[in-house]
Amino acid sequence: MKDYLPRPILPAPPSLVSGGKFNFGTYSSQFKEVNPLKADRPLGMWLPKPVLSFRLKEWQAFQLGNERWFLLAVLYNAKISALAQFIAYDKENKKKYIFEKILPSWIVKVPDSIWQARQSYQDKNSFIEIVSQLARGRFYINVKISGLTTVPDIEGHFEMFHDEGLVEPIVVSIPFGSNRGVYSHKCLMTMQGSMTIGGEKTVFLRGNSFAIIDDHKGFYPYRMKYDWVTAAAYNTDKQLIGFNLTDNQSVDPEKYNENCLWVNGKLNLLPPVKFSRPNGDEGDWQINDSYGKVNLTFKPVSMGEINMNFLVLKVRYRGPFGYCNGSITDSTGRTVEIKDYFGMGENKYIRG
Which CATH class for the 8-220 domain? Predict the structure, then answer.
């Protein structure tokens, strides 16, 4: 089997786009300015800024958890529609609580920066707020949902620790064309907070709780598709371990991908991966690479689905929660065993 030579991790330039050109690569820290709308002809032709903005998909998503709970908080703007979502999955009782609103695109405003920003969605029954303070090494999520027949009352407050020197994010700018890019900032962090569901309160302690951020902006193709899985847990040595694995539309996935393993805050880059689902989306997902670094099975236990099919819009989304088992080899050659790490996956196709 051939040896894997990891792509370089570069110091981040000041801006995602400089002089009209995307700065493609894998970076060790966040851009001071995330400015994809300043790219020169990212869709191959000159287009006015409102049209470019309409083609730019943007979201902030957080996966959070501890031994019992796995949570997902999302504010997403695909421009054809938007989504506000909070999901709590009780692993002990195999029960899923879902709040979800599909909204007009102008309702959700994803901020340009995570250095100091706030975004939220609110109506008479719900409130989801994401506060980004990367300059202080902190993120906050506040959730309050009440008075609905579909889900019990929920209130949650979470603080995440993105302290410089303790965690290493993966910040990527991936080409989907000659000057067509996708930016993402992902990081596994410790987390603390509290959540009350239907009167039962859970306290999340920093020593056994985690969070993964996905700050994301991209000029995806008209037919957008990708496979993805992420999970995290504390091992028997109380090390926080997690991973992010994606197979997307990168023009050169050997040089440009967002695949990584975190071990106690340290980032380990991984090669391109492929997903196979011999028994469909509800059966086991196999995730492997061609270098023998990634050998994982993701077993869905709770499926999420979105299906739409209109004249110009088609969405086929499968987003299960489930367990990961197998192994990943880190950058030192050590094999990291993945045993019943809980996380989520996506098999996404959007035409529109």
Answer: mainly beta
Which sequence spans correspond to the domains of the chain? 8-220, 222-352
Tell me if 140 sits within 8 A of 159, measured CB to CB. yes
Cα dihedral 13, 17, 20, 22 in deg (nearest 10): 100
Q: Are residues 312 and 321 in contact, defined by beta-carbon separation less than 8 angstroms?
A: no
Burial class (CB within 10 angstroms; exposed 0-12, middle 13-18, buried 19+) of 18: middle
Mean per-residue pLDDT for 38-43? 98
pTM: 0.96
Region for 333 from its dihedrals, namely left if φ exceeds 0, alpha if ψ lies in -120 to 50, beta otherwise: left
| First-to-final CA distance of the chain | 40
Find the largest Cα–Cα distance for the chain: 58
pLDDT digits (tens, 9 = 90+) for 104-161: 999 999 999 999 999 999 999 999 999 999 999 999 999 999 999 999 999 999 999 9
Strands 305-309 and 314-318 come out as antiparallel
Distance in angstroms (rounded) separating the CA atoms of residues 157 and 131 = 11
What's the rounded Cα separation, in Å, for the pair 150 and 273?
38
- Size (the chain), residues: 352
Q: Are 319 and 252 spatial neighbours (Cβ–Cβ below 8 Å)? A: no
Distance, CA of 188 to CA of 170 (rounded, Å): 9
Q: Using an 8 Å Cβ cutoff, are 9 and 86 in contact?
A: no
